[in-house]
Amino acid sequence: MRFNGRYIAALVIIVLVGSFFLFGTLFNNRDSGQAAQDGQAPSRAPRVVYETFTAEDQPGYLVLRGRTQAAREVSVRAETGGRVVEAPAPEGARVEEGDLLCRLEVDARQAALDQARADLRAAQQEYDGAVTLSERGYRSQNSVSALEAARDGARARLEAAQQELANIYIRAPFGGWFDRREAEIGDYLAPGQSCGIVLELDPLLAVAQVSESDVGALEPGMAGQARLITGEIESGTIRRIARQADPATRTFRTELSISNPDGVLRSGITTEIIIPLPARRAHLVPTTVLALNEDGHIGVRIIDSNDRVRFVEVEWLSDAPGGSWVSGLPDPAKVIVQGQDFVEDGAIVESVAAP
Question: What is the pTM of this model?
Answer without folding.
Answer: 0.61
